[in-house]
Amino acid sequence: METYVKKDKEIFLVRDENIEVESEFRFDSLTHEKVFDEELDDRAIKKAFEIYRKRNDLITPEEIRNIRKMYALSQRAFAIVTGLGKSSIIRYENGAVPTKMNSYFLKDIKSNPQRMEKLFEINKDLLDQKTQEKFLERMSELKEIDSLSEMNKLVSFFNDDSPNDYNGYKLFDYMKVIQVISYFSNRIPFLSKTKLNKLLFYTDFSYFYNHVVSLTGLTYIHDHFGPVPKKSEVLYALLVENGMIEWKPFPNGQGEYVTSFASYEELTVDEIEVLNKVLEKFRDDNAITISAKSHEEKAWTETQIKEKISYEYASELIYKV
Asked: Which residue ranges traverse the bilayer (predicted)?
């Protein structure tokens, strides 16, 4: 059967509401009737869902993922604490439209950590010890952030008292972090969080090696997959909240990648030189290979889990630029 594709309008019924969508559909060349095309039809349905969400001010899949990550919970753990059910959480994160009641509930626990904490207390016995500890640690961080003024929230939370060998003798530079992330995300398609963490590490430590000061002022810790910025999940959640970065699902649905349209024009010549060298050295690495490389570094082999990493290790980097 010969077919062709053209734009057309169709009405979809979404939760008892008719939603008209203009999208591309496939047609039979002989009868000019619409025929099934999984990809095009799925795209049209997603448009209908998006229109319905906007009309009814419903929470988006990305917002749900960010709320879950804000509380350091897996889909299963988030479902247990909220009582929504794992299948519902998975469907919502994959694009299904939540009920208005569930949307309101999810928005409320985003802005009301105290309610989430109460739900956790009710259901914590259904969670393993490690999950409980991670949640309580995150709640402690969120309370600390909440006690700060809005304007100084990011800077104050991530700053040390003074420049030292754990921040590369530079206080946390909010704008530099955004600029570096934007620089990399605009040059590396589908940049995963794991790879981003390693690029930040190698950028800061290489810059420190060449200039005796870090680029961003970030502190790094020893984590399972290699060095990562301290409190990185909170950092990324706040950057999302402020519209500086966005996490999007990979086409295969496995994991997420970062995007950013923030300006990086204020990066200096020296900073861009190091960024380009890091980009060239690790461009072809994926999350697994760059993590493996970071595991070779003394900065990782000579530190323990969650231990802060001194910038003094910069001189001993195997993969410095």
From this structure: none
